[in-house]
Amino acid sequence: xxxxTSPPTPPSQDPRLLRRLLRAKDRMDAAxxxxxxxxxxxxVSGVSAAHFARxxxxxxxxxxxxxxxxxxxxxxxxxxxxTDLPITxxxxxxxxxxxxxxxxxxxxxxxxxxxxxRERWRATQHQLQQVPACHVQAAHRPDLITAVSEKRRREAxxxxxxxxxSEVS
Length: 169
Description:
Elements: H1 15-30, H2 38-45, H3 49-60, H4 64-82, H5 87-93, H6 99-110, H7 114-128, H8 133-139, H9 148-168
Helix pairs in contact: 1-2, 2-3, 4-7
């Protein structure tokens, strides 16, 4: 029996809810190329969409959309590195609806275009053969703690500030 003096377990730490959230996360991992609106994920988890979105972010530190974006970029990075597939094919295989959206988002997240990424990887590939694959993958995992749209706003703000500063000088 639970101790009546202990505080109630927060919803995001409820083991039953965590199992449900993991089920949805596993589905996204297994089919990251598919569309995963919050309503669909909530249905997999057996909770409301709003509760799912809040609980997922509390449990995993990222909103569901950003988590899915991370998985797609990871998969695209692996395909760029390990295959000779055209970039367009990689974009569609990893769940992007258009090449333009894929390229823009890939650049926003990684700092380089898919083509630049592939070229850089091939140029340095021989140096990484001595590094365990798990370390290479971890090092290339996209950092999506900040939303892509927020990164764009910050860059636009920095550009505006830089041009204002140069005009003052």
